[in-house]
C-alpha cells in the first residue's frame, strides 16, 4: 500500500482528488491540506510515500514546497496552468496533471508511482541481501546479447540490439525500444552504461545513451534516431565527432 497526502488550496479540488484516491486500491490517503505550510508542519512529525500537490497556491507554491523538503517522497503535481509543467519536471516529479483531470488520469499517474515504489522495494531488498546496484539491473557479463530489466511489475529480458536509446530521468531510466515500447526501470544511467557493449552504445549526453546502429543522421547539436532525436552534450561532442570520422 502506498501512503499519500494531497495538498490544494481549493476545497472543491481537494475533495475531488481525495475521492479519486479512495477509488485506487493501492493508495491510502493519510491527510489532506489546504496549505503547503500546514503540510510541511505535518511532515516534520510524519512520513508519506507520495504527495499530490497543486503548484499554484498563495502561501507557498507546490514547487517551493517540494524544493524545501530534505528527502522528498514521490511527487505528482496538479495545476490549472500548463506553463508550470517544466518546473514540475525539473524536480523529477512522477507526473504532472493538468486540471481538470479525471479518475483515469490520476490512476495512470498513480500506476507510475506504484511501479517506482515497487522498483525501489526490489532494489532495497537486493541490497539488503548483499547484492550490488549493478545486480539489481540484471547486468549479464557473460552474455551481452540481452539484459534483464525490472519494469512494470515484472522482469523483462530485453535484447540489446532492440534498444534504440536510453534516457535518464533522475533515479530511473527509460528504455526506448525498436518496437515502440518504452520501459522505465530504477537505476542510474551510469550503471546501465557499464552493462552495454561499448562497440554499439555511446553516451552523447549526461542524460542519454544511444545505440549507434540506429543513427540515421546528425547535425551540430543533435543525433537523429529515425523519427526521434537526442541532444549532444558539450562534453561528448568531441568523442562523437571522432566516431563519425572513423565510421564515415
Write the layout of secondary structure elements.
Elements: E1 2-7, H1 11-22, E2 27-33, H2 36-45, E3 50-54, H3 62-67, E4 74-79, H4 85-90, E5 95-98, H5 103-128, H6 133-136, E6 146-151, E7 154-159, E8 163-169, E9 172-177, E10 182-186, H7 189-195, E11 201-205, E12 208-211, E13 217-218, E14 222-225, E15 228-231, H8 237-247
Parallel strand pairs: 1-2, 1-3, 3-4, 4-5
Antiparallel strand pairs: 6-7, 8-9, 8-12, 9-10, 11-12, 13-14, 14-15
In a nutshell, what does this entry contain?
The protein is α/β, with parallel strands linked by helices. The protein has 8 helices and 15 strands.
Describe this structure in words.
With 248 residues, this protein is of the alpha/beta class. It has two domains: 2-123, 3-Layer(aba) Sandwich (Rossmann fold); 135-247, LytTr DNA-binding domain (OB fold (Dihydrolipoamide Acetyltransferase, E2P), Beta Barrel), CATH 2.40.50.1020. The protein is 33% helix and 31% strand. The chain contains eight helices and 15 strands. The strands form four sheets. It has a five-stranded parallel sheet. A five-stranded antiparallel sheet has the order 10-9-8-12-11. A three-stranded antiparallel sheet has the order 13-14-15, with no helix packed on it. Strand 6 and strand 7 form a beta hairpin. The longest helix is centred in the middle third of the chain and has 26 residues, at 103-128. It is elongated. Mean pLDDT is 85; it is low at 134-143.
Amino acid at each position: 500500500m502506498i501512503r499519500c497526502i494531497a495538498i490544494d488550496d481549493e476545497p472543491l479540488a481537494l475533495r475531488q482528488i481525495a475521492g479519486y484516491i479512495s477509488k485506487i486500491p493501492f493508495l491510502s490517503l493519510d491527510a489532506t491540506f489546504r496549505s503547503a505550510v500546514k503540510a510541511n508542519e505535518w511532515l516534520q512529525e510524519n512520513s508519506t510515500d507520495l504527495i499530490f500537490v497543486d503548484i499554484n497556491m498563495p502561501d507557498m507554491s507546490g514547487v517551493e514546497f517540494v524544493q524545501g523538503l530534505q528527502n522528498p517522497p514521490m511527487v505528482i503535481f496538479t495545476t490549472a496552468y500548463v506553463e508550470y509543467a517544466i518546473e514540475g519536471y525539473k524536480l523529477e516529479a512522477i507526473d504532472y496533471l493538468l486540471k481538470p483531470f479525471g479518475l483515469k488520469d490520476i490512476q495512470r499517474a498513480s500506476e507510475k508511482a506504484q511501479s517506482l515504489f515497487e522498483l525501489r522495494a526490489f532494489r532495497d531488498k537486493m541490497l539488503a541481501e548483499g547484492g550490488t546496484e549493478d545486480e539489481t539491473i540484471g547486468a549479464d557479463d557473460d552474455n551481452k546479447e540481452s539484459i534483464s530489466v525490472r519494469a512494470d511489475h515484472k522482469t523483462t529480458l530485453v535484447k540489446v540490439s532492440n534498444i534504440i536509446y536510453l534516457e535518464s530521468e533522475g533515479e530511473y531510466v527509460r528504455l526506448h525500444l525498436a518496437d515502440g515500447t518504452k520501459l522505465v526501470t530504477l537505476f542510474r544511467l551510469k550503471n546501465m552504461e557499464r552493462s552495454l557493449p561499448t562497440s554499439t552504445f555511446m553516451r552523447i549526453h549526461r542524460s542519454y545513451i544511444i545505440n549507434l546502429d540506429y543513427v540515421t543522421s546528425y547535425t551540430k547539436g543533435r543525433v537523429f534516431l529515425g523519427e526521434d532525436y537526442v541532444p549532444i552534450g558539450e562534453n561528448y561532442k568531441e568523442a562523437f565527432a571522432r566516431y563519425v570520422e572513423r565510421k564515415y
